[in-house]
Write a structure and sequence with these properties.
Shape: rod-shaped
Structural class: mainly alpha
Number of helices: 1
Radius of gyration: 26 Å
Distance between the termini: 83 Å
Strand content: under 5%
Number of strands: 0
Largest sheet: none
Order of helices and strands: H
Length: 67
């Protein structure tokens, strides 16, 4: 009987570990979705800013004024 009790304990511990890991993955998925949305918004904002600059050359490709 001891073997069955040991196996039941191990299964219970493994089940809890899987549940805990599932919670961690779910939190990371939500955090990643938030970061992706924010990066998308920042990219849109930068594209609008570069389009509004009007000179046709993206700000990142312009030479600094001291050149």
């Amino acid at each position: 009987m001891t073997n069955i009790t040991d196996l039941e304990e191990k299964i219970a511990h493994l089940t809890r570990t899987v549940d805990d890991l599932s919670d961690v993955v779910a939190r990371q998925e939500r955090a990643l979705a938030l970061v992706m949305r924010r990066v998308g918004l920042l990219m849109e904002r930068e594209a609008e800013r570069e389009a509004a600059s009007g000179d046709g050359v993206p700000l990142a490709d312009q030479r600094p004024p001291h050149w």
